[in-house]
Amino acid sequence: MAEETEKTEGTDAVADTPKPGTSIISLIVALVLVTALAAGAGGLVGILLYSKIEHVAKEKAAAKEEKAVAEYAGDLTVTTVPPILTNLANPSTVLLRIEASLIFDGAAPKDADALATQISGDAMAYLRTVSLRQIEGASGLLHLREDLTERAKIRSEGRVREFIIQGLAVE
Question: Which domain of life is it from (predicted)?
């Protein structure tokens, strides 16, 4: 009986051993199947994201077309500011000359020339506190323009819409 058990166990052992090459083929089939599944899932996610992005882009384009109103539309008045010539804070040997204009909403106030002169004086006082490094480059010029616009709005009690720099020379 012990021999029968041994024979039975021996035949089971032979039946359980895989054929050579079967494990490699099953591994390759599994890898191809998983790769195909991943590619399909990635493609599906890509298509969904693309459609969402396309939808948002169309909405933004439609909103932009609706807001196509000109920035300077309406009744505006332009007043020239007397040229500003001053030295900067750092280096103090550098001179700065600005030619600018003021944009008023609606008709210019009766005291527009006096207001332009006061704004010119304020701008000169401000520019004496600015260093050359602060106004370098496009972003520096933009910040300078925003600061001067803010000062002009404060001085004019909100009547000035914008301070426009027409010319800037640094010596």
Answer: Bacteria
